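In response to the reviewer comment on reproducibility (Comment 2.3), we provide here a single inverse folding case reported in full, input and output, so that an independent group could reproduce the run without further information from us. The structure tokens appear first.
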């Protein structure tokens, strides 16, 4: 993971995949227009102005309306403004590498290595440290 770039927490099971709409919903609610800005209406209005989106487009993304799709340009803009990355591939790669490490260490001082792997897993998935799993 690149230093200084935050990862997106997952809302469902460890192996689930977050859609781009869910990613944008999270980014809008937590990074573009965080709760500290006041009411939901004020936050949506702020996000709309910040991103240059229409109020309806922003509201649809805010509530993750399943009928919308997020363009690549919109996704890049959200990533640029928030520091988040829609990095599902990187997370899958980390999971695969950890699974391979576990397989190599089975039977070789498993108690010792289990603590190491737990630490590695927490570093690979920053949301474990922040407690923002949902």
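Designed residues, in position order:
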């Amino acid at each position: 993971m690149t230093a200084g770039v935050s990862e997106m927490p997952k809302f469902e099971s460890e192996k689930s995949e977050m859609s781009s709409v869910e990613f944008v919903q999270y980014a809008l609610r937590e990074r573009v227009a965080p709760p500290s800005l006041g009411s939901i209406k004020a936050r949506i209005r702020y996000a709309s102005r910040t991103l240059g989106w229409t109020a309806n487009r922003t509201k649809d993304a805010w509530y993750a309306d399943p009928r919308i799709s997020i363009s690549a340009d919109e996704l890049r803009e959200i990533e640029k403004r928030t520091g988040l990355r829609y990095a599902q591939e990187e997370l899958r790669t980390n999971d695969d590498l950890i699974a391979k490490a576990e397989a190599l260490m089975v039977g070789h001082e498993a108690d010792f290595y289990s603590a190491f792997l737990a630490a590695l897993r927490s570093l690979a998935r920053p949301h474990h440290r922040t407690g923002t799993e949902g």
